Amino acid sequence: MATNAAELHEEDFYAWTRDQAAALRRLAKDRWNGPLDLRHLAEEIQDVGSDRRDAIRSHVRRIIEHLLKLEHSRARDPRGGWRVSVINARVEIEDKLTRSLRRDLVRQLPRLYGRGRLLAATGLDAYGESEAARALPSTCPYELSAILDIGWFPHSRHGIADEM
């Protein structure tokens, strides 16, 4: 674990934003008499970390949505696009995922799965695959490590072989 703010910034940017926002709030509470708007700076720094966290959560929802479609859909044509979407999201996450953001994903996985499942079911229904939409598991069938694994994809329940 990082021993100072500079190391924390390099190792876990999200944790650094939380740490720096808290430090700025402590300074403001102590009535530091400098030229900086500490209250607003703290909010902005925390927001930067929250934006990164929210982007990673969004990518995970999209991955879940497309993994479910790949596993449950009978459709052949959109499969390549779903795979590309999953790979793109995994690449986006790869460089931004830190220890604290991984812990956040573990905590949030049931909620993220619920939203990804809703998106997958809605998409399947829209293309006449209501049976597949109803067959989606109510709880996440994927481990977080599989969701983030750049080369892992579920097997199609309909025997469709994906090529890439």
What labels describe this entry?
164 residues, 7 helices, mainly alpha
Number of strands: 0
What's the end-to-end separation, in Å? 39 Å
Element-level helix/strand string: HHHHHHH
The description of the largest β-sheet is: none
Oligomerization state: single chain
Average residue-wise pLDDT: 94
Helix % is 55-70%
**Number of helical segments?**
7
Q: Which word captures the global form? A: elongated
Flag low-confidence runs. none
Provide the β-strand percentage band: under 5%
- What's the Cα radius of gyration? 20 Å
Decide which structural class fits the backbone: mainly alpha
Describe this structure in words.
The protein is an all-alpha fold. Helices cover 69% and strands 0% of the residues. It is elongated. The mean pLDDT is 94.
